[in-house]
Amino acid sequence: MSNEIAILGAGMHPWGKWGHNFVQYGVAAAREALADAGVPWQDVRFVSGGATVRCGYPGYVAGATFAQALGWQGAEVNTSYAACASGSQALAAARNKILSGECDVALVVGADTTPKGFLAPAGGYRPEDPDWVRFYLGITNPTYFALYARRRMDVYGDTLEDFAAVKVKNSKIGAHNPRARYKKQFTAEDVAASAMVADPLRLMDICATSDGGAALIVSSVEYARKIGKGDAPRVAAISTTTPTFASSVVEMPDIATDSAAAVGIDAHSFRSTLPLKAYEEAGIGPGDVDLAEVYDLSTALELDWIEDLQLAPRGEAAALLRAGDTAIGGKIPVNVSGGLACFGEAVPAQALAQVCELTWQLRGEAGDRQVQGAKVGITANQGLFGHGSSVIVKR
Amino acid sequence: MSDKPLAPAIDGWHTMEVKPHLIGTQCNSCGSYFFPMNHAYCRNPACDSTEFSEVELSRTGHIWSYTNASYKPPEPFVAAEPFEPYSIAAVQLEKEQMVVLGQVIEGVSCDELKVGMPVELVLEQLHETDDDIKMTWKWKPVKA
Q: How far is CA A120 from CA A111, A115, A167, A297, B74, in A?
């Protein structure tokens, strides 16, 4: 299809709390992606960075910061901020440049360092900022994940054991991922013994914050063929759609949903609308997908995503999990990278990290994590203020 | 509670009566409700109205979901010492067809809540300052 671009290279700095500046993570990831692609840095004509807002001035101009660190060579530059979808928007910017014929090869890179504990808003008395309001009223990020989890329990009959099983599954596979932060294989007993954070979610149900970096070298399909990589995995779709009015699920950081009281407006959830454009753009359906990398900010949220991606009917993701179908060797493996459960959040990097994993999987280079015969993978994530993304990679 | 005067934690978001209401707005053109108040532009994509009426929202609804805060949230939250966990509910207002988050009244644990349970709006202390007691809305379970 005409809107496809090739993924020539993928790279990551191992995630964890390493104490470095975010630029160091990004440069390491970029150099690995360049080496993987076999493309000289000077040939990259567009640098697309995911912004980080917790690292001061350079973070706001991440694209240029990485370009300078790698050595100015006159490429065009771009920085994208879209909360957890920053990496996907940076990838979309690179795709647009390539498809418009303005460049052949682009570097897409995101990296971050994150503070320990709860993410908190800026200070002062600022009731006009919904992020400030919800913290003032005592509503943190885990509150939202827990509301979704508890609803699954009361409406679909999901159990605490189901949620723990997601953590057990992801940590079992992620423990062998050399780039993951956490290498411990958690048991259901470990999850149950961890401290309650937001009922029904315990500490081991919720992902940590982390430092990390991820990068991709992408190009036109013609360029890929020219350098002998015509069979490289392709980005077949990028969806960064916003919600549609009236979204019926209360989304961070808002304390109320849209009102669906006006005549003729159907209420629906934002998450489920994100992959629709991706499927349409790639010209495939959920049945064509071999594996998925989704945003397990909480164990229960992985189950929501499986249904939002239409990999299981609404309310039946736990049944899929119980049957082993979302594990390696199952019908539709989910988060074989280990997911955020094993990586932690490094906001501008994580949407790219998902695409890196799909790239390695589709090239058959994922080692212990390999999903046999994987041809199509999908990612999904969601952040603040209507930012989210879904990317389809195929081979 | 001390004898300091009562003041809303955030001005103009709810009435201060015994049976309080959240204060929202309703679009004069399409009828969509907004909370907190929106006076500027209708967020219904099919409506470009800039005319809104202030309305008191329904003070009863049904629980859409619920959880609790077992850990003390960061600032600007002002926690009592020692910190006491509290419950939180997302409540569906039927007429407005919207969900509004808020704490559940003190002393109600998650074990006592259920999706679909009817609740009503009350005021309770959020925190105390040197000058007054900051009140906010909370959800209180009611007998069906």
A: 20, 10, 25, 16, 6
For residue A281, give every residue at least 6 positions away whose Cβ sits within 8 Å of its Cβ, in sequence order, or none. A3, A236, A237, A238, A239, A392
Domain that holds residue A323: 130-205+235-394
Rg over CA atoms, chain B: 16
Residues A14 and A141 grouped into a single domain: no
| Best to test chain B binding among A145, A199, A201, A385 (most B CBs inside 10 Å) | A199
B117 is written with which tokens? Answer: 């349970």
CA-angle at A44, arms to A39 and A49, nearest 5°: 115
Q: How confident is the model at residue A118 (pLDDT cuts 50, 70, 90)?
A: low
Contact list, B12 vs chain A (CB under 8 Å) = none
Domain of A171: which CATH number?
A: 3.40.47.10
Q: How far apart are CA A283 and CA A288, in angstroms?
A: 10
Domain residues for the domain of B82 are: 59-141
pLDDT at A1 over 70: no
Which B residues 22-51 touch A at CB under 8 Å? 27, 30-36, 43-47
Q: Do A264 and A380 fall within a single domain?
A: yes
Q: At what angle do helices A86-99 and A347-362 cross, to 10 degrees?
A: 60
- Name beta bridge partners: B40: none
Q: How high is the mean pLDDT of chain A?
A: 95
Is residue A238 very low, low, confident or very high in pLDDT (cuts 50, 70, 90)? very high
Question: Is the domain of A36 the same as that of A177?
Answer: no
B97 CB neighbours in chain A (<8 A) are 246, 259-261, 267
Closest of A291, A259, A246 to residue B57, by C-alpha = A259
A37 vs B81 pLDDT, higher one:
A37
Residues A186 and A226 in one domain: no
Same domain flag for A86 and A58: yes
Amino acid (1-letter code) at residue A100: S
DSSP classification of residue A169: H
ipTM of the modeled complex: 0.96
Q: How far is CA A248 from the centre of its chain?
A: 23
Are residues A134 and A13 part of one domain? no
Length of chain B: 144
- pTM for the structure as a whole: 0.95
